[in-house]
Specification:
The chain has 224 residues and is α/β, with parallel strands linked by helices. It is built from nine helices and seven strands, in the order E-E-H-H-H-E-H-E-H-H-E-H-E-H-E-H. The chain has a domain of 151 residues: 3-Layer(aba) Sandwich (Rossmann fold), CATH 3.40.50. It starts with a strand and ends in a 9-residue tail after the last helix.
């Protein structure tokens, strides 16, 4: 028997991967389910972002811990992926996300700045009388089974933005809800409260050459 859990108005997780989770009445592997749409992860990455496709599968020191997390087993619900631009942080986060979505578990992905934009837009609608707009975005971010916040530190650092991020991260910390954060910065460069919360979880440093460069065509060296 499946356990139904409300993640936002009219949306529940842990239902069979057909029917209520799909936009149509029948399951279609070529069409995203409702949970997949709500995850905000590009649907085409379902085929390209898998652990089977990972270039150095099993060779990284963090591999076993990531595989356990992808299976829903973890010592701490927070994972932070650190590394320079193009080192595969978002790819790894999406790969974990698809493992969760394939189990019928809810996931929500946002670049941090896009989440703040959605909250600002929702707040503006709330001020104009839309009672749900702002709170739907906030509660979805708080209550989805796995939240992925990409590119911490790239957002505009207003007091309002810091307060909203603190609110979401703190809520998930207090309620022990899984969070994957990515950043190009060190924890010391993030806000003190968020850095403190993230530091209690698993920290994974992704090293090596740019993943994006390796995936693309070779780039000619500049002439001296």
């Amino acid at each position: 028997m499946n356990q139904w859990r409300r993640i936002m108005p009219g949306v529940f997780e842990n239902l069979p991967l057909s029917g209520c989770l799909n936009s149509g009445s029948e399951s279609n592997a070529d069409e995203p389910t409702l949970l997949e749409k709500l995850s905000l992860i590009p649907f085409h990455t379902k085929k390209t972002h898998s652990f089977d496709a990972w270039k150095h599968k099993g060779k990284e020191t963090w591999w076993q811990e990531i595989m356990e997390y992808a299976d829903g087993a973890y010592n701490h619900p927070f994972i932070t992926l650190l590394g320079g631009v193009g080192t595969g942080k978002t790819r790894l986060a999406w790969t974990i996300a698809w493992a969760w979505l394939n189990k019928g578990w809810s996931v929500l992905y946002y670049q941090v700045e896009e989440l703040l934009d959605a909250l600002r837009e929702g707040y503006s609608r709330w001020e104009k009388g839309d009672a749900e707009g702002y709170h739907v975005v906030l509660r979805h971010a708080q209550n989805t089974k796995l939240l992925i916040l990409d590119d911490f530190g790239a957002e505009h650092g207003t007091l309002w933005a810091k307060a909203k991020l603190d609110q979401i991260v703190d809520y998930r910390y207090v309620h022990q809800k899984p969070l994957i954060a990515t950043t190009n910065l060190t924890l010391e460069q993030l806000s003190e409260r968020i850095a403190d919360r993230l530091s209690e979880g698993t920290l994974i440093q992704l090293m090596g050459e740019s993943f994006r460069i390796n995936k693309g065509k070779s780039i000619p060296k500049a002439r001296k």
